[in-house]
Known about the structure:
This protein is mainly alpha-helical. The protein is built from 36 helices and two strands. The protein has helices spanning 31-39, 41-44, 50-63, 73-102, 110-134, 143-151, 155-167, 175-187, 191-203, 211-223, 227-239, 247-259, 263-275, 283-295, 299-311, 319-331, 335-347, 355-367, 371-383, 391-402, 407-444, 448-460, 467-480, 486-496, 503-512, 516-528, 536-548, 552-564, 568-580, 584-596, 600-611, 616-627, 636-648, 652-664, 672-684, 688-697, and strands at 9-12, 139-142. A two-stranded antiparallel sheet has the order 1-2. The radius of gyration is 34 Å and the shape is globular.
Amino acid sequence: xxxxxxxxxxxxxxxxxxxxxxxxxxxxxxxxxxxxxxxxxxxxxxxxxxxxxxxxxxxxxxxxxxxxxxxxxxxxxxxxxxxxxxxxxxxxxxxxxxxxxxxxxxxxxxxxxxxxxxxxxxxxxxxxxxxxxxxxxxxxxxxxxxxxxxxxxxxxxxxxxxxxxxxxxxxxxxxxxxxxxxxxxxxxxxxxxxxxxxxxxxxxxxxxxxxxxxxxxxxxxxxxxxxxxxxxxxxxxxxxxxxxxxxxxxxxxxxxxxxxxxxxxxxxxxxxxxxxxxxxxxxxxxxxxxxxxxxxxxxxxxxxxxxxxxxxxxxxxxxxxxxxxxxxxxxxxxxxxxxxxxxxxxxxxxxxxxxxxxxxxxxxxxxxxxxxxxxxxxxxxxxxxxxxxxxxxxxxxxxxxxxxxxxxxxxxxxxxxxxxxxxxxxxxxxxxxxxxxxxxxxxxxxxxxxxxxxxxxxxxxxxxxxxxxxxxxxxxxxxxxxxxxxxxxxxxxxxxxxxxxxxxxxxxxxxxxxxxxxxxxxxxxxxxxxxxxxxxxxxxxxxxxxxxxxxxxxxxxxxxxxxxxxxxxxxxxxxxxxxxxxxxxxxxxxxxxxxxxxxxxxxxxxxxxxxxxxxxxxxxxxxxxxxxxxxxxxxxxxxxxxxxxxxxxxxxxxxxxxxxxxxxxxxxxxxxxxxxxxxxxxxxxxxxxxxxxxxxxx
Length: 698
């Protein structure tokens, strides 16, 4: 207990008799505020019981508020009278609305039917909240009195004391102490305490997370008639948490809670009947429970009803009805409904065709991780269906899918890559002189990206004499001037050396005789299609032969190849071998992989190893970790230090970041001249954001 709390007094209404405790405050309590603050929480969590919600909301608010002065007690009584009147007024308004709508009989529209269900539900909550709020059996007690009664064994006061420690409003929050008192109350049969213990054991609050323990307490409370406990118990049977998964028992407990109006249980019963889990598949029964949950505001159920109308499951096919449900659920954020809404606007089922609306909803669903929506967006942009063709946007969505291990998406990326190569080569053939002139002009004006692209023109224009040697010369120039992306191509062509029609056969012959360097070079030529078409399998074969003889670069190239093929297990295996040989790129990529696995400690350790060898990208990633306020390594000064190292090393993103830091003046003193210097360096490497930032400064 905090020093000076002995004089704090608590208001405890007659609700204590049923194990619910309400605590009022010396400040103004507004009934509407109490009502509104809790109104949506039950719905969003998928649980609802009118009377229980009313009591819970009132008591939850009371528990957060403390009487600070005894002199305000009588003043508070006067307020309660006016608050009861306010509850009565709100209830009367809802009662009028209910009578008006019920008077219409069966002539209600769907929207009016929803309004009637809503009005009935809100009336019930107001009635229960008023009862909880205005109980006249008030007692005023100090914390010492509460502790005394709890220690004497009163289960209601034990539950109340547990709540005080759980909320931490008048004493220091202490989950262990809360659990201690809840357990004492629960063992004496206090149902609310049993539910609390179920929650705390499930979440690991005050004790180690233990689903078996959670299951035990929920079962005790459920057997004593608690609706939320019954719902939670059904969920644990359904998911197999704390008990072996058992759909039939899950269904039984969901049914207990659903009959009492629990929205979550109603929705899950609908789901189980729809899929035939623990019951025979029954679309009509599924629809019955979905309707029950939907009328209480459950969005998932509304989407499900739309789907059943669309497919004619349990009801005749009705596209307009399906569309109405989908659109409503989509507007409430349900990703499945958003995707369904996109498809109906795309196809015109139940609504007029509207490609703009279709794209809006495809995006909404895709951004929430909906796989089919991501696929459809990728396909739409690739084929130019309903929108203008946009290969970069298509690649963005296929890449997102591929990063999740989707093989089909990776295959599509390979197809697009081949299409792009063919398009580039055709474009070069048709407009070669124009390309050369425009890139030469930009390169002569200091645009390093243009210089690099000039090298790419020579690299891809295979019919030109000495094109690889010319590309090598240009890549060297770009790299020397600070364009780091040229390094990979530079190393590649430098390794191959002078190329002519006999190069491939010479390397083939030497490699077959066991020459390590020739094996590596032959792998490169198959990997990048130098001198012949690409052949991934042959590239891997020759890389492995070179690796067997200790060739470190072949090891990294092989790991890169597996990474590009989205074969993560093999990629990591070879990168780890490279990291053991202290290769900075391998260490850097393992850092990326560790971040993806959400192991920040391992990530920064790998990045540090690479950074110590001057790896600019690794230095940049360390800077990002240090800059993140949610990271355990958060340190703005160190962030700046590593951004600066990376920027000096030529990383365009680090140069841009450094420019931003000098513009903002948050980590170091604001310096626009220094900002312009770094932004120019970044912009010269083609970074669009740096160009925009530079324009805004100038």
